[in-house]
Amino acid sequence: MPSKITATDIHKKYGAVEALRGVSVDIQEGEVHAICGDNGAGKSTLIKVLAGVETPDSGAIVIDGRQCQFATPTDALRAGVATIHQDLAVAPRMTIFQNIFMGAELTRPILGIPLLDKAEMRKRSLEYMSQLNKALTDMNTKVEELSGGQRQAVAICRALRWNADVVILDEPTAALGVRETEQVLDLIRSLKATGKTIILISHAMQDIVAVADRVSILRHGRNQIGLPVSGLTPDRLSHYILSGETSPAN
Q1: What whole-number distance in Å separates Cα of residue 64 and Cα of residue 59?
Q2: How far apart are the first and last CA of the chain?
Q3: What does the alpha-carbon distance between residue 126 and residue 157 come to, in Å, rounded to a whole number?
Q4: What is the gyration radius of the CA atoms in the chain, in angstroms?
């Protein structure tokens, strides 16, 4: 089941620097919700809080009506929130199935000795991958042989293996070419089609307009404006970020 996630009045300071000054976001079940803003807006800090990397000084995170406190990323994962960072954290020289099951390898006993169940991991990896990229079928392929978009698919499959209901994608198309960017946008559409709730952080306005349902714009650690994406153009979205407007244009 998809999850609704609400962050209310989140504050976070680093010494004298107030990175978040009462930010609130309300992310509906099964939507793609983009979070954007200029450099220093507080996007990265908010995502670290939602991912369990940072603990807020005050404020609340509620998932499906249940208040959650994340002291570590593992706490967030247990609550169904998985974060795919810009660097993906994949092991290039390992195979697709090895990356998907990294740290959670399946075993089966042979003469009382637990051995890696590679066949089952390949089978399940293919099941995860078929939800996102049906063209990628050889789970023995090394990740270093994949395109940027395909590597994103591997990282997303790991989130599916974690059984995450909320998937945070941090700048997923950064440094990708046009074709690979479109592959990643297709992955986001496919992920939404599986019923997941997606939080998208991106500087690429055209990507947000292409796949997001709603967008929250932050400015100087505060909420600036929240908008439905339908009808927005990349130029208009950029205008909101640069101008600091706090209400939709007529």
Answers
A1: 17
A2: 37
A3: 9
A4: 19
Mean pLDDT over each residue of the chain, to the nearest integer: 92
Three-state secondary structure call for residue 211: helix
Compute the C-alpha angle 153/126/131, nearest 5°.
55
Q: How far apart are CA 194 and CA 199, in angstroms?
A: 15
Q: How many helices (DSSP H) and strands (DSSP E) are in the chain?
A: 8, 12
What are the boundaries of each domain within the chain? 5-243
- The architecture of the domain spanning 5-243 is 3-Layer(aba) Sandwich (3.40)
pLDDT at 250 over 60: no
Cβ atoms of residues 161 and 101 within 8 Å: yes
Is 224 within 8 Å of 237 (Cβ atoms)? no
- A 10 A CB-CB count for 41 gives 22
